[in-house]
Amino acid sequence: MTELSAKRRKGSGTPSLDCDRGWLKRARRVPSPNCDDRPDPDDISLLVIHGISLPPGRFGGPWIDALFTNTLDPTADPYFQTISQLRVSAHLCIRRDGRLTQYVAFDQRAWHAGVSTFSGRERCNDFSIGIELEGADTTPYTARQYAQLIRVSAALLRTYPRIKPERIVGHSDIAPGRKTDPGPAFDWPRFRVGLRDRIK
After folding, report:
1. How many domains does the chain have?
2. What pTM, to 2 d.p., does this model score?
3. In this predicted model, what pLDDT tens digit does every residue of 2-53 receive, in sequence order?
4. What's the half-sphere exposure (Cβ side, CA atoms, 13 Å) at 34?
5. Which domain holds residue 117?
6. Candidates 3, 122, 132, 134; catalytic one
């Protein structure tokens, strides 16, 4: 636990996320090896929303876990042959039914953003938290996913006060031309109104 996290837990006036050493207690935990230490563990100031489905456009199954734990079988689907050697992760994934799986502690650096820039600053992995929504660019996300994302985002904003609502972005915003997720199917107004109401 970082010194800043300890201060939050000891009554700094900022409610702490319900987590143990950066792990969300209500999430299923599947540790990924694809992470490392942040250059500055107290510099967590961006939340990046992603979309993922494996194979593309198909939901369910063990494949997201497998990708983030380097156990994806390249013979299980032709598409997997193109990505099985990737070493990537996210902090958290929200499945279609709202279930949470956490792969990396929030205080660590997950490998989710790749080549990226936000507000003139490169290497967004250094200072961001990455949340994957199980979905596809043109498939509507579910009500349970929005509800869970709003709850988690509100908790993260309380726990990491350098993350502001305006510093919640899509992967496409920090890697334009390279990434498109969470895609046009993601309802940003719905999410932002729900988050605003949650943090009032």
Report:
1. 1
2. 0.91
3. 433 433 433 333 334 576 779 998 899 999 999 999 999 899 999 999 999 9
4. 24
5. 3-198
6. 132
